[in-house]
Design goal:
Length: 145
Amino acid sequence: MSDHTSPRSFKQLHRNSALGPLADRAIALRALDQNLRRCLPLELAKHCTLANIREGQLIFLVPSSIWHTRLRMESDTLLRHAHTLGVTANRVTATVVFDAASPLTPTPHKPLSPAAAGSLREAAERLTDVDLRQQLLALASLAGD
Protein backbone atom coordinates (compact mmCIF):
# COMPACT_ATOMS: atom_id res chain seq x y z
CA MET A 1 0.00 0.00 0.00
CA SER A 2 1.11 3.50 -0.75
CA ASP A 3 1.49 6.25 1.86
CA HIS A 4 0.34 8.86 -0.65
CA THR A 5 -2.88 10.67 0.10
CA SER A 6 -5.24 11.92 -2.53
CA PRO A 7 -4.66 15.43 -3.84
CA ARG A 8 -6.28 18.23 -1.85
CA SER A 9 -7.63 21.50 -3.14
CA PHE A 10 -6.09 24.84 -2.24
CA LYS A 11 -9.16 25.67 -0.16
CA GLN A 12 -8.68 22.49 1.89
CA LEU A 13 -5.00 23.22 2.40
CA HIS A 14 -5.74 26.82 3.30
CA ARG A 15 -8.48 25.90 5.76
CA ASN A 16 -6.46 23.12 7.45
CA SER A 17 -3.08 24.86 7.51
CA ALA A 18 -1.48 27.02 10.16
CA LEU A 19 -0.74 29.45 7.31
CA GLY A 20 -4.46 30.02 6.72
CA PRO A 21 -4.82 32.91 9.19
CA LEU A 22 -1.63 34.49 7.87
CA ALA A 23 -2.88 34.27 4.29
CA ASP A 24 -6.23 35.73 5.36
CA ARG A 25 -4.47 38.66 7.05
CA ALA A 26 -2.33 39.30 3.96
CA ILE A 27 -5.43 39.33 1.77
CA ALA A 28 -7.21 41.70 4.16
CA LEU A 29 -4.18 44.03 4.34
CA ARG A 30 -3.93 44.14 0.56
CA ALA A 31 -7.62 45.02 0.23
CA LEU A 32 -7.30 47.71 2.90
CA ASP A 33 -4.14 49.06 1.24
CA GLN A 34 -5.96 49.45 -2.07
CA ASN A 35 -8.91 51.09 -0.36
CA LEU A 36 -6.83 53.53 1.71
CA ARG A 37 -4.66 54.61 -1.21
CA ARG A 38 -7.79 55.75 -3.07
CA CYS A 39 -8.00 58.77 -0.76
CA LEU A 40 -4.43 59.84 -1.54
CA PRO A 41 -3.20 61.97 -4.44
CA LEU A 42 -2.53 59.63 -7.36
CA GLU A 43 1.22 60.25 -7.50
CA LEU A 44 1.61 59.52 -3.78
CA ALA A 45 -0.63 56.46 -3.96
CA LYS A 46 1.75 54.96 -6.55
CA HIS A 47 4.67 55.25 -4.12
CA CYS A 48 3.33 53.82 -0.87
CA THR A 49 2.07 50.46 0.35
CA LEU A 50 0.29 49.57 3.56
CA ALA A 51 2.53 47.01 5.27
CA ASN A 52 0.80 46.47 8.61
CA ILE A 53 -1.62 47.71 11.22
CA ARG A 54 -0.20 47.45 14.71
CA GLU A 55 -1.11 49.10 18.01
CA GLY A 56 -3.30 51.70 16.32
CA GLN A 57 -0.72 52.53 13.66
CA LEU A 58 -1.12 52.32 9.91
CA ILE A 59 2.39 51.37 8.82
CA PHE A 60 3.31 52.19 5.23
CA LEU A 61 6.40 51.47 3.14
CA VAL A 62 7.73 54.24 0.90
CA PRO A 63 10.78 54.36 -1.41
CA SER A 64 12.29 57.67 -0.23
CA SER A 65 12.15 60.39 2.39
CA ILE A 66 10.27 62.64 -0.04
CA TRP A 67 7.35 60.19 -0.17
CA HIS A 68 7.63 59.73 3.60
CA THR A 69 7.07 63.46 4.07
CA ARG A 70 4.21 63.61 1.58
CA LEU A 71 2.53 60.64 3.24
CA ARG A 72 2.90 62.27 6.64
CA MET A 73 1.17 65.38 5.27
CA GLU A 74 -1.80 63.19 4.26
CA SER A 75 -2.02 61.36 7.60
CA ASP A 76 -5.23 63.10 8.73
CA THR A 77 -6.94 62.17 5.46
CA LEU A 78 -5.77 58.56 5.81
CA LEU A 79 -6.95 58.30 9.40
CA ARG A 80 -10.38 59.74 8.57
CA HIS A 81 -10.74 57.33 5.66
CA ALA A 82 -9.58 54.40 7.82
CA HIS A 83 -12.22 55.27 10.43
CA THR A 84 -14.95 55.27 7.76
CA LEU A 85 -13.80 51.74 6.88
CA GLY A 86 -14.06 50.65 10.51
CA VAL A 87 -10.31 50.57 11.12
CA THR A 88 -9.28 51.87 14.53
CA ALA A 89 -6.07 53.76 13.93
CA ASN A 90 -4.67 56.88 15.55
CA ARG A 91 -1.34 57.29 13.80
CA VAL A 92 0.27 56.91 10.38
CA THR A 93 3.91 55.88 10.22
CA ALA A 94 6.11 55.15 7.25
CA THR A 95 9.33 53.27 6.75
CA VAL A 96 11.66 54.12 3.89
CA VAL A 97 12.74 51.00 2.03
CA PHE A 98 15.14 51.23 -0.86
CA ASP A 99 14.66 49.11 -3.95
CA ALA A 100 17.57 46.67 -4.04
CA ALA A 101 16.95 46.11 -7.76
CA SER A 102 17.92 49.68 -8.62
CA PRO A 103 21.41 50.42 -7.32
CA LEU A 104 21.96 53.81 -5.79
CA THR A 105 24.09 55.99 -8.01
CA PRO A 106 26.34 58.32 -6.09
CA THR A 107 25.65 62.00 -6.61
CA PRO A 108 28.67 63.65 -8.19
CA HIS A 109 30.11 66.32 -5.93
CA LYS A 110 30.79 69.77 -7.27
CA PRO A 111 34.44 70.74 -7.00
CA LEU A 112 35.30 73.29 -4.35
CA SER A 113 35.56 76.73 -5.94
CA PRO A 114 38.75 78.77 -5.66
CA ALA A 115 36.79 81.44 -3.74
CA ALA A 116 35.59 78.88 -1.19
CA ALA A 117 39.13 77.51 -0.86
CA GLY A 118 40.41 81.04 -0.23
CA SER A 119 37.80 81.57 2.48
CA LEU A 120 38.80 78.30 4.14
CA ARG A 121 42.49 79.30 4.09
CA GLU A 122 41.68 82.73 5.58
CA ALA A 123 39.62 81.13 8.34
CA ALA A 124 42.41 78.61 9.04
CA GLU A 125 44.98 81.42 9.43
CA ARG A 126 42.92 82.99 12.23
CA LEU A 127 42.51 79.79 14.24
CA THR A 128 44.51 78.85 17.30
CA ASP A 129 43.18 75.26 17.26
CA VAL A 130 45.87 73.39 15.32
CA ASP A 131 43.70 70.35 14.46
CA LEU A 132 40.87 72.46 13.08
CA ARG A 133 43.36 74.59 11.13
CA GLN A 134 44.80 71.45 9.50
CA GLN A 135 41.32 70.19 8.62
CA LEU A 136 40.36 73.49 6.98
CA LEU A 137 43.61 73.60 5.03
CA ALA A 138 43.06 70.00 3.90
CA LEU A 139 39.59 70.95 2.68
CA ALA A 140 40.95 74.01 0.89
CA SER A 141 43.49 71.82 -0.90
CA LEU A 142 40.61 69.98 -2.60
CA ALA A 143 39.75 73.05 -4.67
CA GLY A 144 40.29 72.87 -8.38
CA ASP A 145 42.59 75.95 -8.46
